[in-house]
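Tokens for Phosphoribosylglycinamide formyltransferase. Go.
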Amino acid sequence: KNIVILISGSGSNLQSFIDSIKNQQLDASIAAVISNKADAYGLQRATQNQIPTHVIEHGAFETREAFDKQLAQTIEQYQPRLVVLAGFMRILSPTFVNIFHGRLLNIHPSLLPKYPGLHTHQRALDSQDEYHGSSVHFVTEELDGGPIIAQARLKLATFSEPESLQKAVQQLEHQLYPKVAAWFLGEQITMKDNGVYFESKKL
Ligand code: GRF
């Protein structure tokens, strides 16, 4: 049950996968971690846990397609059941998304369809929403737009700063994301016709 995880930064979500596997809450192994940034702290987390790492810097490629091709080839050598975007801050081309169609997950720090894109915590505060949170979704060609699998939320009223809000949302993410991966690897959820299906026989 191989997973490949793509990161760009701190990798706290990656850490939640490492921990969930150790605690036997997630029956999987992380085949590789790939970062588009050489200084991503998540690479150290991977190395400390004997997980192979790759750095593929987008600046070294002339086009998005060339970068995505290298990325896809690197992932495919591990033949993963699941590809997890965990704070991976690059928009992926339709060609890439199609290769991993139905087995590519992303986590986005908002209650989608609210606030696709950046600065989600500030935007939620500015809008004085009642709730804010995070969403795990299958990736399709539309940015932050694929079918939503699950969301975790909190009440916004007690927060006034985006920084503390981000911290709280990330704590929710660390519980949510490995759970969704476990559903997927247990064949409890599939993507079909741009929707998510929960397979009743396995629940
Ligand atoms: C997460 O909050 C995720 O929702 C967003 O980027 C952040 C990544 O954090 N896409 P980390 O690198 O996993 O710590």
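The pocket of 5-O-phosphono-beta-D-ribofuranosylamine is lined by residues 7, 9-13, 42, 86-87, 107-109, 134, 170, 173 (CB under 6 Å).
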